[in-house]
Amino acid sequence: MSYSETVEQAISNIKQQTVLMQRSLNNKKLMDALKYTSTMLTELRNPKLLPKQYYELYIQIFDSLTILSAYLVENHSNGHHLAALYELVQYAGNVVPRLYLMITVGTSYLKIPNSPREEILRDMIEMCRGVQNPIRGLFLRYYLSQRTKQLLLPIEQKDSIEFNSQFIITNFIEMNKLWVRLQHQGPLRERDQRTKERKELQILVGSQLVRLSQIVDDNLTLYEEEILPILLEQIVQCRDVVCQEYLYDVICQVFPDEFHLKTLDALLDTSLQLNMEVSVTKIILTLCERLNGYIERIRQNQSEDNDQNPIKEDILERFWKHLLKLNDERPDLSIQELSGIILSIMNLSLIWYPTNIQNLNKLFGLVTQKCKDFGEERTQDSESFMVKLLTAHDLDGVKNYKKYFFDIITQCDSFQDLLSIQNSLSQMDVLTLIINCFLGNDTDKKSESQILISTKTQLERFLIILEPMITIKTLTPPPDKNTNEIKEYNAQLSREYLLSVHQEKLAKMCHFLIQNIDKTQFKTVESQLELLLMIKNVYHKGGKNIRFTYPTIVTNFWRMIRKCNIFKVKIPKRKQYYENLMKQIFKYISRCINDMFNNCGNVCMDLIYKLNLQSAALADQLSLVEISYDFFSEAFSVFEESLSDSRTQFQALIFMAQTLQKTRSLYKEDYYNQLIVRTTLHGSKLLKKEDQCRAVYVCSHLWWATEISSIGEEEGETTNFVRDGKRVLECLQRSLRAADSRMDNVESCELMVEILNVCLYYFVHGDEQTTHVGISYINGLIELIKNNLKSLRLEGEQRISEMNVNNGDSNNVNNSANGSIANKDKYVMGLDGTYIKLRNINNSSSAHIDFKIKDMNINDMIQIPVEHFDRTCEYIINQRDIDNRFKMVEL
Amino acid sequence: MSMFFKSPIDIEILLDSEESRKHVEVPTSVNSTNSRKESLPLVEDGETLKGIVTLRVREGKKVEHLGVKISVVGSIDMQKLGGAPSSSASKSSSASSNASNYSATDSKKRQVDQFLYLSYDLCPPGELQHSQSFPFVFKDLAKMYESYRGKNVDVSYYIKVTVTRKSTDISKIKKFWVYLYNDISKTPNNVTITKTGTKRITNDISEDETNDPANEDTRSKDDANDTSSSNDNKSKAAIEDKANAVAKPVKLDIGIDNCLHIEFEYVKSQYTLKDVIVGRIYFLLTRLRVKYMELSLITRESSGVKQNSVIIDTTAIRFEIMDGSPVKGETIPIRLFLGGYDLIPNMSCNYFTVKNYLSLVIIDEDGRRYFKQSEIVLYRTR
Question: Compositional bias of type Acidic residues: which residue ranges (chain B) (predicted)?
Answer without folding.
Answer: 205-215
